Amino acid sequence: MGSKLRSLLLLLVAIMVSTAAFADSPHERTQFGRDIVVGPNDEISDATCFACTVRIHGHVAGDVTTFGGSVVVEDEGEIAGDTTTFGGDVRLSHGVKVNGDVTVFGGRLRRDPAAIVHGDVTNFGGAIWLVLIFGVPFVVLGAFIALIVWLVRRLLRPAVPAAA
User: Fold this and answer.
1) Do 72 and 52 meet the contact criterion of CB atoms below 8 Å apart?
2) Is residue 141 part of a domain?
3) 104 and 45 in one domain?
4) Which residues contact 114 (CB under 8 A, 6 or more apart)?
5) pTM of this prediction?
6) By residue range, what is the domain housing residue 78?
7) 80-106 burial by CB neighbour count: b if 16+ within 10 A, else e?
8) pLDDT tens readout for residues 11-24
9) Residue 58, number of CB atoms within 10 A of its CB
10) Which of 152, 156, 133 lies closest to 144, judged by CA?
11) Is residue 20 in a domain?
12) Which strands form 102-105's sheet, in the order they lie side by side?
């Protein structure tokens, strides 16, 4: 084996070892399109879900965030950090506890009166908030692009000679 190949393999192994050594936590869960389920005896550090649901029956030591999905906390589940959903619902059943804030954009908050939330609860319910947050910037960007196209066409238009 050549020295260049050996050096490359050693560098690759060093990168993989250092990445594993500095990882945040082996108990973080991130999913795209597949639900995350935290069982009654499970404990994870953080949960992030894109287009899926996070179901918590156990303990989450950090934050729970969903984009286009929901958070369901049941059976005396607990979230030590914040809970945030964009375009999804949050359901807090009887006896659950959230030590951080609960924020819902474009969804609904269903909270049992016996559910405990130690932080702030913010609910921007309904689709109008999603349109304001995500739609308005696209309209402004589209108008800006249309203005640039109009200006370029106007500047590149051939000059028409004056009639004699």
Assistant:
1) no
2) yes
3) yes
4) 94, 95
5) 0.64
6) 25-125
7) bbbbbbbbbbbbbbeebbbbbbbbbbb
8) 555 555 444 444 44
9) 18
10) 152
11) no
12) 29-32, 47-50, 64-67, 83-86, 102-105, 121-124
